[in-house]
Amino acid sequence: MPKYYATGALLIALSLISTFVICAQDRRQVTYNINPTLSGANCQIQAYVPESVDVQPRFPGGDAAMLKFINKERHYPYDAFQMGIEGRVLCSFIVTDEGEICHIEVVRGVEPSLDEEAVRIISAMPRWEAGKIGHDAVPVYCMLAIPFRR
Known about the structure:
Blueprint: H1 2-25, E1 29-34, E2 43-48, H2 63-73, H3 78-82, E3 87-95, E4 101-108, H4 112-123, E5 131-133, E6 136-138, E7 140-148
Antiparallel strand pairs: 1-2, 3-4, 3-7, 5-6
């Protein structure tokens, strides 16, 4: 009887290990199309989606430091403020393997002046701590909402 239990436990252990290995190899990437360059050729960059990396990219000092930076850096456009326009501008960007932010785009905008301000804020951010797979730094596709409230 114990022989059957040992065989069953071994089969369960092997199936768990194989499942872990399969999941670890399932790293999702996105291909980010960059506007044509001066030569007219389309450029592409590949980046991992945040769920596919072992260590997420991180603003220096963490989320609290990022919120402090956004609040300090944000300048509410005068006309939008006067007209009572509010909302969250959703932007996408890539944190490179060196921690630089590039390829910033507005995914869901509110109003052109608020959209431009959100892009400016993200462009002004310092170098992030890069995302990692194992010990290797990798580019990661990120999204961030910049809020504008009166």
